[in-house]
């Protein structure tokens, strides 16, 4: 038998053991409850550095050995291997993709900052490096699902994803999908989905990248990447480190200027990935992501708790396998994820320490059948097992969910009409939850002009905190569920020296059983209840034009959103909230970008405007809107096989005094410079 056969056997063996026993394989290694705990920030960083050196030595040694055997590599014909449902999820709905230039420009930052300055999602941040969440189309932060290579990374106890803990340097592709995506992507994708994906590149030999940034308020960040690939193997190792004091000046409630205290942030992470072409139409990927973050939590302007801190420890292990056939494509993925969150507040008045440990194991198998040239059928099954150990819960809690999903894709012969009909049925601990269908349609009315329509039912399950927390919970909570619709018009025109794109999208969403926390009769204990019905509607506009004049290239991008998200039903004891706008949801949001490029030079100015937001359910108190600008200038130099780059950025160039969360100030004007090397 040929080498392709035994490679297939190895691939099947690996996937089988990952899907059937990954939990038992990794759990003994992580049985300890606090493997990374350190006495101080300094000791933690030293420990991280030593661990990194060991990891890099082992990983790079493997890369060197592989490089030495490159002469015996079997040449495999190039074939495109794509993810299973990604092309289908974009049909009929609005989406934004970050190109390579955006990812390069934000390489030493996190996902929150990249989304804030490039997308139409609303980012709510407590400050640089601290908790940051996303709201899409008037939904809550728990309604945005973040998927890494197809795995949902939402916290099982909080229900949200902290976008400040996702380094941009760890991903190759970012795509934001607007509107409900529950039918294809499962729980939590009620408002939208942020896709983070890795993309292997074969036959590139050695490649190395380094970038170092320094900035105001003690900012110091570094990222590095080392790749080796031949025609059948790609291995990559990435590192990320960031530290900042964040001691910026601000004005307190008495209009006195002082420096922010207890705001230091340190993050460190390593991502290693291997991609193997088992044959001309098969690919195996293995991913290991380890990261730790230690963040001091500054006091709010209204309360004095200057010593609180938070530690996050993350380990993600995953593998995926793909086989592309003439009639049938097969996909399998499995992952085990451990996250630990330690919160410490030594305040003598109310000292509190918690150590939350979350385990999640996800396995999924999917097939795509090519019925004919214009029809495809996707069928798959997903199993998600979660375990949470937290002092806020009365005991160790576990949950098992199994979901069956399918999608039927139909094009006409000219591919001017594209449709996808999807459905999902999930079983949670033996109980059926709402059946969710969705329909997406795209029609090219004339050349360059497309109409999009999407309708979907969506849901979100209550979190472990909602169901079981000792601070207030209800084990009988029902899933949030409802319908969302959107209609979009897109015009794209590309000519020799210019390009033009314009889109307008209107959306509507009605959600029942919206979970809200309300005080009990004592007024001190807040419990979650299914009492709200929320109606969100609005319109999104995007205008982009690019043109060349001589050696210069100019691009202008303008985006504007109007969102109205109101309570259509409220609790009897809170009639004042009826018809009111949801808290922390701006009605108006706009973003403008001006980009100039010429002969290695690039200058970009971004200006964003965010309308006021209400901070109480009766809309009696509000947080002022803000308008901020960012300017960056960079220069790239090519020196034979080495590319050097340097940049300078000015953030909040107009020195706007603003807050994204009440009583948590954001920094004024600040600067950042950096250099990069690529080989």
Describe the structure.
The chain is mainly β. Helix content is 12%, strand content 54%. It has a 22-stranded antiparallel β-barrel. A five-stranded mixed β-sheet has the order 1-6-7-4-5. A two-stranded antiparallel sheet has the order 2-3. A hairpin with a 2-residue loop joins β26 (526-549) and β27. Mean pLDDT is 87; it is low at 1-80.
In short:
This protein has 679 residues and is mainly beta.
State the oligomer: single chain
| Major beta sheet summary | 22 strands, antiparallel, barrel
Number of strands: 36
Instruction: Extract low-pLDDT stretches.
Output: 1-80
Strand coverage percent: over 45%
Mean pLDDT: 87
Helical stretch count? 7
- SS-derived structural category: mainly beta
Helix content: 10-25%
Shape field: globular
Annotate the secondary structure layout.
Layout: H1 3-26, H2 41-68, H3 86-89, E1 95-98, H4 100-105, H5 111-118, E2 122-125, E3 132-135, E4 144-148, E5 151-152, E6 173-178, H6 182-185, E7 192-197, E8 205-215, E9 219-229, E10 233-244, E11 249-251, E12 257-259, E13 265-279, E14 282-296, E15 309-323, E16 328-345, E17 352-372, E18 375-389, E19 397-411, E20 417-428, E21 431-432, E22 436-446, E23 449-460, H7 464-468, E24 480-494, E25 498-519, E26 526-549, E27 552-569, E28 588-598, E29 601-610, E30 613-614, E31 622-623, E32 626-639, E33 642-651, E34 659-661, E35 664-665, E36 670-678
Parallel strand pairs: 4-7
Antiparallel strand pairs: 1-6, 2-3, 4-5, 6-7, 8-9, 8-36, 9-10, 10-13, 11-12, 13-14, 14-15, 15-16, 16-17, 17-18, 18-19, 19-20, 20-21, 20-22, 22-23, 23-24, 24-25, 25-26, 26-27, 27-28, 28-29, 29-32, 30-31, 32-33, 33-36, 34-35
